[in-house]
## 1
Amino acid sequence: MGFFKKQSPDSNNSLDKGLEKTKQSLFTKLSRVVAGKSSVDAEVLDNLEEVLITSDVGVETTLRIIKRIEQRVSRDKYMNATELNQILKSEIAELLAQNESGDVDTSIKTTDGSPYVIMVVGVNGVGKTTTIGKLAHIYKEQGKSVYLGAADTFRAAAVDQLEIWAKRVGVPIVKQAMGADPASVAFDAISSAKANNADLVIIDTAGRLHNKLNLMNELTKIKRVMQKVIPDAPHEVLLVLDGSTGQNAFEQAKQFTLATEVTSLALTKLDGTAKGGVVIGISDQFKIPVKYIGVGEKVTDLQIFDRFAFVESLFNR
């Protein structure tokens, strides 16, 4: 097929280890589908549909995959059930190759040389603060100067956690007292970064999904205040989702994309769950690229999402 690109050994090992629970669950279910079967028939396809849905691939994406396999079975007339894993792997890879998410852009250059601004959104508990810290580490390792803005002022713990990460990674953080106006924090962080010729500013926001209208108003205000400093900020709105929540991650993605213009996604905590299939569904269904996946607790375990490396690892025993 030519889909699968070679990754670094460290990256592959981390991905394989992070997806271990998902792989064990998937292969266990697939072995039941083909047990006693010599060919891929209607019963096998029905059972495969159930496997994919219960693996949190999502109903719409599952139906697309099943339709593709049905067409392949019809075309090839006879297909050995023992080949199902390889068939499924190639069809998922082709599906992801054809969706509109495209290859992710990890450049942080701006046209006028001002700092690149990433606004990070997501509900509490999804690993938002950890993701920000790991992102800061990634870009600092690339030689970039990074500022953090603690605009989640509704939880004292959020500011404290971000400050811990700032110290751990060795980057400056701009913060105010708990209860301060989030837009004011964002303004100060971007102003400070611009004054010091920083490359990147990452702004944390409150992790509440209390009401779409209130959320929209709050995020819109933060954007508007940012633009007083840098007219085209934020350059990226990154939505962080907890992959271990399965279908709830789909719902959060729907709610946040209604509330603000999300431009990229990060799926975290894939190492602690058997629900890694959610990455396939979200990558397929939302016309927003999955940019990062979290496959472990180490600072280096936030990876740039490669769709084909992911599928390769998922089906690698």
## 2
Amino acid sequence: MPFAKAKLVDGMRFVGWSESGHGIIMDSSKDKGGFDSGPRPMELLLLSLIGCTGMDVIYILRKMRVKVDGFEVEVNAERAKEHPRVYKKVHITYTFYGDEIPEDKVKQAIELSQNRYCSVSATMRAVGELTYDFVIKPSSELQR
């Protein structure tokens, strides 16, 4: 089962890490009690999206032996005005750099990523069931 954990450091700054052992700082703006020292969680969702699909597309193109000299992925999104302020519209732009890049293979790689492989895209397209629980522990168990 995938694992991730986040710990409050100070203000609204959290350090989170995943089962792979890599960590990241998340924070909020100063007007909301943060230090503006890291990306917001919703920004990380967009970064996850373009990282997931970008890696898929490049992996697929390399398997097809398509030479790409440069590649960029950009996302623009619109959030709902009311809470929870979910992303209502998301648009991804893939930019490839190179000579003789076959358009049909690029289209195929993007379609495979979006419709088959990128779990972040699938998650953003259709929200499934959400469950939750909580545990209350004494402060003596807090690790510093």
## 3
Amino acid sequence: MKKWIPYEWFVARRYLSARRRTGFITLIAWISILGVTIGVAALIIVLSVMNGFESEVRSRIIGFDTHIRVRSYHDEGISDPAAVLEKIRGIPHVIGLSPYILEKGMIQAGDRNDGCLIRGADPGTLDEVSDLSRNMAYGRLDLGPVPRGDGRTLPGIVLGRYLADRLLAEPGDVVTLFSPSGIRSMLQMPPVKQFIVTGYFETGMYEYDNTYVYISNAAAQELFRMGGRVSGIELRLDDLYKADAVVDTIEKRLGFPYYPMTWFEMRKNLFSWMQLEKIAMFIILSLIIMVAAFNIISTIIMVVMEKTKEIGILKSIGATSGGVMRLFLCLGVGVGITGTALGLAVGYGLCWAQQTYKFISLPGDVYFISVMPVRMQATDFLYIGLASVLICLVASIYPAKKAADLIPVEAIRYE
């Protein structure tokens, strides 16, 4: 039994088939398909590359910071971190907890000094919430007491790579930290504490590598005269996209004066800008498909002009105006679907090749990665495919309406 095919699709396919009189029209149709293919492939490739960079930046930022940070209002600190940890521990999706301290300070190495952000961490639980140990570029992550050659011991400190370069500090050197927050009057000397450099870390993010230093919480509490207080609690989740749900649970358990912040809220401007940039690139590159859509309009108009007699005959033997309009809409949608399918295939193939063979490299001294990252998302393929076919459909409406409005008598009068 033969499969039934609507006559609109059948006639539309025949109109695009190469014939002696319509070969030029067929060529223009294939040019239109090529335009849609290029536009769709460009969108897939660009958005996949942007997804790759976004994923790299997010993983590095979150790997250095955390998924959720619990602080107190007015940054007064948490005076009883053990009690807060006990209330948070056991919340679903929480796999790591660690108290931290974050304050501004000054660092001096020899005759060189600079401003820095001093990060206090609990050496025992730091690996639960941070990738710092995996980002050590030189030396070791040792924040505990480190023996010196003269028999004394000093607490360890690790520096960001670029900060260490400016200070000319090397592992084994002694550096001094100053705490401006401990000054109560102009006549008072700021709290000072010496540390021994145990290594450098490099996250690939200049903001961190240029300003941050890590010391133990005990040393930071002594330096900043905080007693037993900490700045807050860091949490790591098994799924970072569950952060909002975990925050709701934390707020119910802790209440005032504590408030949790998700990884997105801590870097809201950056991640919002990334999303906005992706939307802007989608709109801009869609113009390529719109240019191809104009070719579709010209193709259908030329088919209408070429097939005026045939349209008149179709309507005279019973075809309705709606049927004729659907015929030419099928013509435009057929071009759009073909071009879209080819574009999706080309985009996927090139992205897969970059993921597999990494043939496009990046200069390591400019970017924090050596290979162009690519991350394909099914939703991008879906939205781009739907947008492309919709643009082609809209472009087909005007010439299809003109074909449907042809009067049969006028179309075949001189034939």
